[in-house]
Design a protein that fits this description.
Blueprint (H helix, E strand, L loop, with lengths): L1 E3 H4 L5 E2 L4 E2 L1 H6 L9 E3 L4 E4 L2 H7 L6 E3 L4 H8 L6 E7 L3 E7 L11 E4 L6 E7 L3 H11 L1 H10 L3 H9 L10 E3 L17 E3 L7 H25 L4 E7 L6 H11 L3 E4 L5 H12 L6 H8 L2 E5 L3 H29 L2
Parallel strand pairs: 1-4, 7-13, 13-14
Antiparallel strand pairs: 2-3, 5-6, 7-8, 8-10, 9-10, 11-12, 14-15
Helix pairs in contact: 4-10, 5-6, 5-8, 6-7, 8-9, 9-12, 10-11
């Protein structure tokens, strides 16, 4: 019955620049446009609770139903990423870098997604790392039983012990570079054959070096997303962090140093749910616009500033990191054929 622009953008049937179903694509695929829902903007009322549902739920028939948004588009609203220059990084199982833009921009190489965002008349660019937090969880589950046992005794999270333990490992993890391609990769390589790699291992390295290398490698992969944005002339001057990895002060400091910009968190941990609520408030005319609502509701919590010395050191490793995938690409494919 109804959909909205950010979610509909993922169907590959939407004319993303014009925010409506693509007549050309529907014609080529012989799809009747009457089979598709009406497309609304995210903070737009799509209908009201029916009398039957009002009786069953106790809600008023005046309760409106609002477009809402897809998960990342809603998270952008919940973190205040609703104007140019703003972006966020999510480190969950996968990793996402999401940037707002008021100008439509599409990568001709298809390395990142361009979708309509939850702000009417604007778009977002999104790059994805397949195994972000998943890389650290994989390493923890398979090689960190000592941390897990110690955390159980102390009644704390194993990740807290890991963060504290690797904080004194130097930038670059004593010359180990990790490629986080456990599940293949999306941005910028779009390669299902790619696999994870520890590059530079020697007898001097310990578990701590490898753990830090995992976190740094994921951060380099997220930096790859930003480099594509920069090619597309998408400005990023203010980065927010969310997801499980975003709660780690150490990981946020890595991102700030590797990105070369501030990385902040917001005081609400609800992300997409808060964003959906904000869109509903705009639809109900509690606020004049999504931007105004975010200004009133979203509050910055912690701010991590880049360390210039660390940034210079990370840059040396990132330049090597970028060279590794092209060197390994044919080997990944050959390995898959065995």
């Amino acid at each position: 019955f109804a959909t909205e622009v950010s979610d509909a953008s993922g169907m590959q049937l939407l004319d993303v620049p014009n925010r409506c179903w693509s007549e050309e694509v529907l014609e080529k695929l012989d799809i009747d446009i009457n089979m598709l829902a009406k497309v609304y903007e995210s903070p737009e009322i799509t209908g009201y609770i029916t009398p039957e549902m009002a009786e069953r739920t106790g809600l008023s028939t005046k309760t409106c139903v609002v477009g809402g948004a897809g998960d990342n588009a809603a998270a952008a609203v919940g973190t205040g990423v609703v104007k140019d220059g703003k972006a966020f990084t999510t480190i969950g199982t996968s990793g996402v870098v999401f940037a707002h833009t008021s100008n439509i921009s599409i990568d001709p190489k298809g390395r990142v997604h361009t979708f309509c965002c939850a702000v009417p008349g604007a778009w977002h660019i999104m790059g994805v790392t397949q195994a972000a937090g998943h890389s650290l969880k994989w390493f923890r589950d398979n090689f960190c039983q000592d941390y897990i046992a110690k955390a159980e005794k102390q009644g704390c999270d194993p990740y807290d012990l890991i963060n504290a333990d690797i904080n004194n490992v130097p930038v670059g993890s004593n010359k180990i570079i990790y490629l986080p391609y456990l599940n293949g990769e999306r941005t910028p390589h779009l390669d299902s054959y790619a696999r994870g790699v520890f590059f530079g291992l020697s007898p001097i390295h310990t578990k701590k070096h490898m753990i830090r290398a995992v976190m740094e490698g994921v951060s380099y992969s997220l930096r790859d997303c930003i480099e594509v944005f920069r090619e597309m002339r998408i400005d990023i001057s203010d980065m927010a962090a969310c997801g499980g990895g975003g709660t780690s002060q150490l990981w946020r400091s890595m991102l700030a140093d590797i990105y070369g910009c501030t990385v902040s968190t917001v005081d609400s941990k609800e992300g997409a749910a808060l964003g959906s609520a904000i869109l509903a408030m705009v639809a109900c005319e509690m606020y004049a616009s999504v931007t105004d609502a975010c200004k009133a509701v979203v509050r910055t919590d912690k701010v991590q500033y880049p360390n210039k010395k660390n940034s210079r050191e990370y840059e040396k490793y990132y330049l090597i990191y970028k060279k590794l995938y092209p060197l390994l690409k044919s080997g990944y494919r050959a390995l898959s054929l065995i």
